[in-house]
Amino acid sequence: MTAPSQPTPPTEVDAVGAAEAGAGGLLRQPGSVRTSSTALTVATRTRVRQLGAVILLLAAAAVWFGMAPEAPDPASTIAVIERTDDANNANASGAPQQAVVNGWTTIDYLRLLAQQSDAASARQDRSTAMLTLCVAGIALLALTVPRAPAERLDGRVGVESDGTTEPLPNSPITSS
Questions:
Q1: Per-residue model confidence as pLDDT tens digits over 139-150
Q2: CA 23, CA 10: separation in Å to the nearest integer?
Q3: Where are its TM segments located (predicted)?
Q4: Can you state the angle between helices 95-144 and 38-66, rounded to 10 degrees?
Q5: Phi-psi category of 93—alpha, beta or left, where left has phi over 0 and alpha has psi -120 to 50?
Q6: How far apart are CA 161 and CA 42, in angstroms?
Q7: Does residue 87 fall inside a structural domain?
Q8: Is 60 exceeded by the pLDDT of residue 93?
Q9: Containing domain of residue 50, as a range?
Q10: pLDDT by residue (tens digit) across 95-113?
Q11: What is this structure's pTM?
């Protein structure tokens, strides 16, 4: 009668497994490869990053075209102000009436400047919205970039960038 084969004693404690399992900890057999759900997390983060990029691109296009200021035509407005001023000055007799007409003309020019200032404000709102989208894109990138994998007890990295695990030394599994 042959003696039953005894299992190989565990050689090292999986620190990540111990943290996940609580106080008991998991023992790793020689030649075993620790698996991880990090591959799913990396794939999910990549999908979220791609979807977020598409949404940000569409939002940027909507802001760029939707908040575009209308092209002002100050030359025609100035021409109207000057024609009105000429007509009013032709009807004015004496310096006091011309002073009143010049006041009206000044008011018309100030209204034109206020309209141009409002148009510039719309362009500034557009820039602010685009900057906000840039900040949202940077935040999306920061939140979805793959995390650096934890270092294993043997000093090597546990999870490769493609989501696979690196085998332990003296393992029959070879790394690709």
A1: 998 888 877 665
A2: 17
A3: 51-67, 128-146
A4: 170
A5: beta
A6: 9
A7: yes
A8: yes
A9: 38-144
A10: 888 899 999 999 999 999 9
A11: 0.45
